[in-house]
Each structure stands twice: as C-alpha cells, then as structure tokens.
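tool_log.txt
---
The assistant was asked to compare two proteins side by side. It first ran the structure predictor on the initial sequence, then on the second. Raw inputs and outputs are pasted verbatim so the downstream comparison step can read them without reformatting.
(1)
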Amino acid sequence: MSEPIRVLVTGAAGQIAYSLLYSIAKGDVFGNDQPITLHLLDLPFMQQVLEGVVMELEDCALPLLREIIVTVEEKVAFKDVDVAILVGSMPRKEGMERKDLLKANAAIFKNQGAALDQYAKKTVKVLVVGNPANTNCLIAAKSAPSIPKENFSCLTRLDLNRARSQVAMRCSVPTTDVKNVIIWGNHSSTQYPDVHHCFICLSGQEAACFDVVKDDAWLKGEFISIVQKRGAEVIKARKLSSAMSAAKAIGDHMRDIWFGTAEGEFTSMGVYSTGNPYGITDDLIYSFPVRIKNKSWEIVQGLTITEFSKSKMDATALELIDERDTAVEFLEL
C-alpha cells in the first residue's frame, strides 16, 4: 500500500460529512488500496457531536483509516493536506438578504484560502461545497495565491446527478446509461442543465437524448426547472437540506479528479474561467463540461451551442458576476 493521503473535511460534524466520511475512509473515493488520514474541522460548539462521529468511525474498524485528527484550529486542520473538502459554511437564515450571506461566507472562505496558502501542500486539490459554492470557491482561490487556481473546484456534481437521474427515469434506463449531461454556470436556481450533447446507451448503441426522450418541450422546460429547484424541494419535504445525495456527489467529484473521466465522456464541475471559454467572462468559478486526466481537468472545447443554450449560459454567468463583485467589494480583493 502507498503512504496515507491527508484529507480535510470542514463542517465535519454536519449532516453531509456524516454520510461522506465513511465513504472516504472505506476507500470508495480514493481507491481501496489508498490509506487515509482524516483531518476533521468544525466549530467549538460542535466538538461533542464530532467526538461521536469519530467514535463511530473507529467502531467501523476500517482498514484504510490510519489516523483521525480532530481540531478547531485551521493551522492544524490544513497542515500538509492533499485534499481539502470545504463543506462548512454559513447557512442562510430567516430574514437574511443574499448580500448578507455573501458577506458572511466571503470572510469565512477568505480565511480558509489563506490557511490553505500557508499550511496545505501546494498540490492540494480543493473542493468547495458550502454555498454559495461558486463564489466561495473563487474567494478561497484568490486568497491562496501560491496554489494554482486549477487546483480549486466547486461542486455541481449533485446537479449533474439529479439531471442524469431525471433523464434515466424518463427513458427507463439505468443512470449509468445516460452520458455527457452538462451543468453550466452557478450552483443555484439559474444553473442550466443541458442535454444537447447527452447520449443514451440503448442495446449497445448510442442515441441522442432528444431522440430517445422524444419530448423537446419537457427537455427545454420542466426538466430544467426540476433540476434547478430540486434542492428547495428536498428542503420542503425533509425540512433539511440535501445530505446523502450531496455526500454521494462529493465522492463522485473527487473520484473523477483522482482517477479521471472515461474515454469519450466528460463531467461537470465549477472551475476557474480564463480565456473566455464559450464566451463566459473570465475570473469566475463557472461550471463547465470537463475531461480529467492525471488529476488535471480541461474544459471540453468545440461543442455546438444553440441560441437557447447560450441565453441560459449567459444568464447564470450574470448572476455569478454579480455575486463575485459583491463579495470582492466586501473583501477588497
């Protein structure tokens, strides 16, 4: 076996982490021959809960889990980590304006970016989950100038999984037969789930999603709305935000970074926009279709973009520009 990798999870006493930590420690994310040292960070008032989580991890008797470091100090949490999964963030509270949420989280992720810059390995792979994930990710990346911006990404895999599942149910096929769905833009209600480049595997043959579904109005209307509003629907039903599905998506995202995407396929994640890809403004964390190899991503180039798609892509970019400018104004970055 190789040397253990150090994996940091923030918000480690929370709901998402409760589902995520077992998968990481069991080997589902980084491989079943990769030992793990977990770094668990949360706020002081969550430490008793976190102690219970640690006891459960110990009681699982997981052979890959070599050490658990529990702390409230960033200098301990971020020390020499190979992977940082930033789950913890300030949730939106009743009566809170969006700008107030942006301000609170901008300060949190500025500090965490600085901690990454000071203490983490320069090769660290950083995944931001805490919302507003795209803008939090941008702030963290800007606050860690010694770490390449290409090492930062934000989670839109949950949206991608939601979209693939809706198409699969519509076509009565397993989700694994739905390939190359794209999530463009922000992890918010403006995101654009795009199936113009999606194909369905039927009896060993690849068929275009629109040809299989045979309902353009649904794919351009209700389908998009379902994916955009799914998080709110989960909260309405559970009275809690998505946790199990979010943890699964984090695992999917990090596994793709670690092992790459399959030949001929791509995934979606929020990554740093530079060079004006598909006409999207630079200096945003924007969800694009990406291929991954050797732990490095590249945006899929040359996809044909319809006028319908372009209008949706630009709308979500405008929201991200506004979020970025608001957060940057608070922090004077």
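(2)
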Amino acid sequence: MSETRVHLSKTEPAAYQALDAFSKTVGQICADNGIDERLKELVMIHCSQLNGCAFCARIHVDRAVAAGVDADTLTQIPTWRESGVFSERERAALELAEAFTFISEDGISDEVYDQVGSVFTEKEYAALSWACVSINAFNRIVIAGRYPVPPRTQQAAG
C-alpha cells in the first residue's frame, strides 16, 4: 500500500484554487439565501462522515462549534433520524446531504425532492445542493490523496 499519493492541490494548484473559489461562492450563496452557518456546517459534517473523510469532518466540526453547535448535537448527526435534537429544516438538510452523497444509488428521489422542497424555498434548496456538491468534491480530493487529519482549531463545546 502506497503511503505517498499525488497531492492534487499541490500538483495542479490552479484546479484546487478554482474549487476553493467555488466553495467560497457557495458559502456566500448559502448566506445570501437564508442558510445559516449552523445548518451549512451540519450538512458539511454529515457528507464528510458519510464519505469517511476525517480531514473534512475535523475542519467542519471546528467550524460548527464556532457556529454554536454543541457536542450533543454533533454526536447525534450520524443518527439524526432517531434523534430528537434536530429541527425540521436540519432534518431536511441532512436528508438532502445523504441524497447528494449517495447520488449514484437513487439520484435525488421524488420523495426526497418533495420532502426537502416542502421545507426549503427554491433558493435555499439550491444553496444547500451546491453546498453538498462542494463538500463532496473536497471529500473526494482529500480521500484520494490520503491527506492527514489537521490538528484541532477549536475546543468542542460541551
């Protein structure tokens, strides 16, 4: 097993810089369309968990803590369907995150589209969808390159 992998962001920095700029645009679209940092970070964490991307999970957990997400909520993201801590909007966003992450299985089913669309406006749905596209792209780059998990930047709130 090769420990050294092509580091896409270093080997072709222009493409990575374009993805980073795209990510910043998506963040602004979320902010402009009513998706607060808490909701966006829950989506980013869930996609990263589903993809098995520890690097991105670490980054977005720290950002979620900075946005006021507590430890109890963070630990319940993988079991959001059974958990009572998430709002209707958060539950819909987590559902959409799963649909985008596993898009090759069922696409965005009519059931998910209708359910999420009943909770979010068209602009909110689009913003969250772009957020899912963005984090799934980063997850793939990081996982393929086996990027080491970065050190903590925040202490998790209890």
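---
observation on (2): The mean pLDDT is 93. Residues 46 and 59 are 12 Å apart (CA to CA).
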